[in-house]
Amino acid sequence: MSKRVIFFILIVALLSLTLRSLYTQNKFISLAKNQAGLEKIKSLEKAILFYVPFSPFNEIAINELKKECQSFSKNDEKLYCYETIRSSLLQIKNVYQPYKETLDEIIPIIASLRAKEMINWEFNNYKEEDFNKLYESQLKLLKYDNTPSTFWSFIVGFSLIGWISSIIFLIWKGLGENIDAVNIFSSLIAFLAFFSLWILGLYMA
Question: According to the model, what pLDDT value does residue 93 have?
Answer without folding.
Answer: 86
